[in-house]
Amino acid sequence: MKVNPKYIPVAATALVMIALYIIGAIAFPKFASLRVLVNLFGDNAFLGVAAIGATFVILSGGIDLSVGSVIAFTGIFIASLVANGVDPLLAIPLALAIGLVFGAMMGCLIHFFELPPFLVTLGGMFLMRGLSFVVHDQSLAIKHAFYTQTLRQLAIPVAPRIFIPVTAIFFIIAVIVATYVSAYTRFGRNVYAIGSSENSARLMGVPVGSTKIGIYAMAGFFSALGGCVATFYMQSGNPASFVGLELDAIASVVIGGTLLTGGVGFVPGTMMGVLILGLIQTLIIFQGNLNTWWTKIAVGVLLLLFIVLQKLIARRSQM
Amino acid sequence: MILENIVFWLIFAVLLFVARRHKTFWPLIALGLLLAFNHGFTPGFFALEAREGHLYGTRIDILHHGSAVMLVALGMTLVIATGGVDLSVGAIMAIAGAVAAQAVVAHQQSAPVAILLALGVSVLLGAWNGALVAGIGIQPIVATLILMVAGRGIAQLITGGQIINFSDPTLVFLGNGHLFGLPFTFALVLGMLVLTWALTRGTALGLFVECVGDNDTASRYSGVNSRLVKFLAYVFAGFCAGLAGLVVASKIKSADANHAGLYMELDAILAVVVGGTALTGGRFYLLGSMVGGLLIQTLTTTMYARDVRPDIAPVPKALVIIAVCLLQSEVTRRYLSRIFPRRAPRASGPARPEPGQPQTET
Fold first, then answer.
1. CA separation for the pair A85, B165 (Å, rounded)
2. Which of A14, A87, A192, B88 allows an S-S link to B144, with CB 3.0 to 4.6 Å?
3. DSSP for A28-67?
4. What's the CA gap between A263 and B168, in Å, rounded?
5. DSSP 3-state assignment of B165?
């Protein structure tokens, strides 16, 4: 049986995820409970949603460093609008539109001026971080009936006293939609084509410009959506929050089996990458003695393993 | 007072004249404009006084506080020139500070031992990056991302999650001492600059770095050990980051694993790019990177001096990044040269066609 090499990283991701879960279940009796599983999705939802946007960018061979700042901006933007009497159902679409337009603007700079995505999104990161503080310079709680009551009622009960929170629902819907877009639409195929070889894609008639701008617009939108989900989760907005979240997002994408050179990877892989990060955190919390900085080291080691694995596969498929 | 300022601007004008055909000209112009703005509109910015034989003033502060960025930018210049990038410098700084502080405080080592230990660890970490990039052949952004993520965890592991305070006089001197009336940190930057200059321009090493960055394959075929060159660039970047980490820790007399060198990788990359070295590799400009570092620090200091809230400070920085990128973009150049046609082509040679762009215009 010959396995297509492009599936090996995703398979490895799935194996690591299952292994971590089994380790947890064996070591801690309460680890395998439904509540832990539900929380795993709910607690990591904002990272997951943002990482999905980053997946498209990385699939196209680019990089997006503005994720954390856009999430922080969206959060404080919604919080301050709601505090000033705007209905959340108006504030949230507005914030999503800002994310979309902001992403599209970065995409335009990258495409029309042929600037490196690294620098453009770095500028975007600083800009959004600063603007968050311009909007409001402190943490701001959201006290609106929509947040305090409606969202809770939307949670789906799965067992007595266990609910799938709204954040998890958003996460799962985002994964399904993004998987569909990446695998079954013309836009999705164009993203893969650009990531494999931008020149060939252009020669084949792929609309490189509009696709690229679309990718960054989409990433901006998903980051903003992640920001909205974060406000559902935290019930507040904070301009200083989520510093360095872009690294977690990129790490989940890479651990999820997407090649940073572009062209190879799957959206569900990113979801598993996010869950692996969440599992490591949960394991460390259950263990109790280890400090949280072990999370960073564990993520670093996993990153290393996956990157070396990808390198080996790339080398073998060339031969 | 007025005489001092006239002398200062005269020196600046001479610098501009000397650099008029050099890549450093534009960052120097930007620095000059920013300084001129401050001269006119920020009271006290150009004050300079001597106390106990040491010079004090905002411009001295810029040299002092900009030292960390400039040190890191030195190593970063070479890494970027080989066509790579090093994201782990901030983490390496945190580790170096943690190692030195822990050696002095917890293990009662003398300052020189602590400094050597910290620099040794930094070199090892640089070698790790170099091995991943040059040995295994991993993309530089990814390879150094690993240490960037794990590095802060390691630094916290070393400090036990705490901020380690130290009072060793030699270690404190590194970031607070004076030499010939100027901050010692400035002398350190100057020394490292001269050393790097001698290593790269005095020998063929600089040429090797540039040819590896320009065309890896071609330089390998012409007998340059491109892997070794890349490896050494990352080792050097690690060393520079370690030195900067010591300076930063020494300045506040403590090792802070969480905040030491935070965002330093971004500032350093920015300094290098502002200084005229392209992210795609090839020609590098050490002096340009130094001016770039000074420009960033001057921008930061200007905002402090003008009471801009520090949390809003990223906004102007972002605008500078975008503006510099746009100025250096080939597309903008092409567009501008259509508006202002030149009589002769630039001395720096014809623009290299980017791989992503169809070559129909020639």
1. 47
2. B88
3. -TTTTSHHHHHHHHHHTHHHHHHHHHHHHHHHTT-----H
4. 53
5. strand
pLDDT at B362: 35
b/e burial code for range B149-175 (CB count within 10 A of at least 16 → b):
bbbbbbbbbbbeeeebebebeebbebb
Distance CA A311, CA A315 (A): 6
Contacts of B197 (CB under 8 A, 6+ apart): B286
Cβ distance B322 to A120 less than 8 Å, yes or no, reads yes
CB distance B241 to B126 below 8 Å: yes
Q: How many CA atoms lie within 13 A of B130 on its CB side?
A: 25
Amino acid found at B206? G
The answer to whether A63 and A118 have CB atoms below 8 angstroms apart is: yes
Interface of B with A in 27-86 (CB under 8 A): 85
Tokens encoding A159: 């067992």
Q: Say what the pTM is.
A: 0.81
Burial class of residue B202 (count of CB atoms within 10 Å of its CB; 0-12, 13-18, 19+) = exposed
Angle, helices A45-59 vs A245-255, to 10°: value is 70
Contact A247 B145 (CB under 8 A): yes
What per-residue string of b and e applies to B95-104 under the rule 16 or more CB within 10 Å gives b? bbbbbbbbbb
Determine the Cα–Cα distance for residues B333 and A114; give it in Å rounded to an integer: 12
For A70, the token pair is 């856009």
In Å, what is the CA distance from B270 to each residue of B147, B178, B357? 20, 28, 25
The closest of A117, A58, A45, A62 to A257, measured between CA atoms, is A58
B-chain CB neighbours of A260 within 8 Å are: 139, 141-142
Position A223 scores a pLDDT of 94
Residues of B within 8 A of A308 (CB-CB) are: 136, 138
Interatomic CA distance for residues B346 and A222, integer angstroms: 44
Strand B182-183 with B178-179, pairing: antiparallel
Strands (E), A25-178: 140-141, 156-159, 162-164
Mean pLDDT by 10 residues, chain A (319 residues): 72 87 87 85 91 93 90 93 89 94 93 85 88 88 81 78 86 93 92 90 90 94 94 87 84 86 87 91 81 77 80 65
Which among A126, A137, A250 is the top mutation candidate for probing chain B, defined by the most B β-carbons within 10 Å of its own β-carbon? A126
Q: Tell me if ipTM is over 0.85.
A: no
Beta bridge mates, A58: none
Which residues from chain A sit within 8 angstroms of residue B137, using beta carbons?
Answer: 311
Decide: helix, strand or coil at residue B179.
strand
Which regions of chain B are under pLDDT 70? 1, 53, 328, 341-362
Percent share of chain B, pLDDT over 90: 15
